[in-house]
Fold this protein.
Amino acid sequence: MAETTRSAKLTIDGKEYDLPILTATAGPDVIDIRKLYADVGVFTYDPGFTSTASCDSTITFIDGEEGLLMHRGYPIDQLAEKSHFLEVCYLLLYGDLPSTTQLEDFEDRVTAHTMLHEQMHFLFRGFRRDSHPMAIMVGMVGALSAFYHDSLDINDPWQREVATIRMIAKMPTIAAMAYKYTVGQPFVYPRNDLDYASNFLRMCFAVPTADYEVNPILSRAMDRIFTLHADHEQNASTSTVRLASSSGANPFASIAAGIVCLWGPAHGGANQACLEMLKEIGTPDRIPEYIKRAKDKNDPFRLMGFGHRVYKNFDPRAKVMKQSADEVLELLGIEDNPTLQVAKELEKQALEDDYFVSKKLFPNVDFYSGIILEAMGFPTSMFTPIFAVSRTVGWISQWKEMIADPQLKIGRPRQLYKGAELRDYVDIENR
Ligand code: SDX
């Protein structure tokens, strides 16, 4: 990041301090407080990190007011329309769009790593059949570090690269196997003659008793969903991966930590929660009741798929997802999908309501995605695993960037202590 001579003045107890300001390529500049505690003896306070930059990064930028999301400078709507997921993976990982040869080589390397160690198949047997696929994915991804010992050393660039390719290649296989295990069907091996999205659909929906032809409409929609979820700055799960790996933890274990965080309904779990909410609403006439509940401070209910820490205008991914939902359902001949009708009417009524407008709450990436995924045949329990498959490239790209940073330090936040003052132990007979 370009250093500048600008500074912020801080006055505490009559003493003035200069804090350097670092200039961003886009978005807010930052006040560099790295020496604040050493020089001034105070911490800053920002639970939830609403005003805190945890790192500098060159990968993704979001302008919440403009509804802009760009990966290495390329806007998401152009990537969703003109690119495809593995090309976006290359862009996120290596910093620019690949040449034809570079892309072919990258895709070949990913394809060569899509199978899981055969011994790992037995690990699935330890789970209950009614396990949530996210629970299985957490276990299986963490277990990768028990099998792939030759790509655990984060200080070896070659091992980091191998771990990167393995993660991107194996996540669809693990997610599909988790799904097959929960529906009691045999695992389907990946194929080298299928593209990434088609391979995933086939591993999820093919059965040994019949040939399986990938529907190109579904494959394109699947690839677009992967592209839209790939990376998103320092969101909760990405920050989890950065913090976990800052201790030197291996990449597979760090990604497993990211999966755990993504699972929460306030984060990636919202796509499952949103579709379940839309189905609970059921018909447009019940929408006012749910909007009323979402506005009620005494009711913990929130409109799932609505609101965002950064987007205070609209989530560009939601716009693309909404268009895709219309296209996919029409092409599949699923006219008048009741859930889509409820979603569109809910969005309309919420965006006409001052509560949502004043709080700048708009549909986010999770609002329409579930409608497409359900139309593809996925149960709601597979929505967040699909998010995790896509976000793996974001987690890994951010992980690579952090590990390669010569200033890497273990993440170790401090606190505002509000507990008991120092006191002596009291024997139990005297309490
Ligand atoms: C993702 O960070 C990322 O980039 C995440 C993500 C990514 O790609 O990684 O974009 C993916 O996680 C998208 C978000 C998915 N989550 C949901 O859809 C769950 C529902 N949304 C909310 O829980 C909430 O909007 C968050 C968690 C998304 C954002 O929470 P913030 O930024 O902490 O906002 P907040 O909770 O402080 O809300 C501000 C106000 C509050 O009211 P007041 O206290 O000011 O009176 O808005 C209200 C909130 O009560 N509010 C909502 C609401 N979201 C916020 N009220 C009703 N329904 C909602 N959905």
Summary: The pocket of s-citryldethia Coenzyme A is lined by residues 232, 235, 266-268, 270, 294, 302-310, 359, 361, 364-366 (CB under 6 Å). Residues 113 and 182 are 24 Å apart (CA to CA). The mean pLDDT is 96. DSSP finds 18 helices and six strands in the chain.
